[in-house]
Structure prediction request, 121 residues.
Amino acid sequence: MPTLLFSLRGVPEDEAYEIKELLDRHEINYYETSAGNWGISLPALWLTSIDELDKAQKLLSKYHLERASVQRENYEQLKKEHKNKRLLDTVIDKPVKFLIYLAAIAFILYLYARMLFEFGL
Prediction:
C-alpha cells in the first residue's frame, strides 16, 4: 500500500533532487506525484512499501538536520559579507516598483475604507 513520505509543495528543486538522490542511493523504492496541470494535486514522494517507512524517515530526518545546518552557515556567511537582501536593499534597487506597490496598497485600503463608511458594512 502506498505511503506518503514527503510532500513536495513549496520545496526548492535542489532539495527535492537531493532527497530523491538519497532515496535512490539507499535503494528505497518510491514514486513521485506532481501537482498536476492546475496545481491542485499533491506533489509528493510516496513509498511503495510501508516496510521501508522507518528507514526513509530516519534518512530524511538526518538529511534535514544537515541541510538546515548548511543553509544556516550560508546565511551567516552572506550576512557577514553584507550580501543578504533586506527590504531597504530592495527599495533602493527598484524604487519605482516599490512606489507602485505602495500606491496599489494605499488605493485598496482607500477603497475598503470608503465602502465601509458608504455602505455601513
Residues 85-121 form one domain. The chain has four helices and three strands. The longest helix spans residues 53-80. The two ends are 52 Å apart (CA to CA).
